[in-house]
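Format notes (please read before filing issues)

Several people have asked whether sequences and structure tokens are stored in separate files. They are not. Every record keeps both together, in the order shown below: the sequence lines, then the token lines. Line labels are part of the format and must not be stripped during preprocessing.
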Amino acid sequence: MCLSVPSKVLEVREDKTALVETLGVKRVVSLELLQEDVFPGDWVLVHVGFAIQKLDEEYALESLRLFEEILEMEDELEG
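Then the structure lines:
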């Protein structure tokens, strides 16, 4: 199963990478696969270290809410 996660762009770098934040975790991802410009504050879909699509903020936030809900249910099942 493949999983892509919405991430907020915090900083765009000159080497076609960006610092993004996903569920409180910051990391650097490649922007090489995107065909449109990305700016701080934008949302992107990240898969294995690559931003693969720019996202609408409302969609990104709803997706993250659902991810968090799934994680909470998983914790309840384990606990």
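For reference, the curators noted about this record: The CA atoms of residues 6 and 59 lie 9 Å apart. The helical segments are 57-78.
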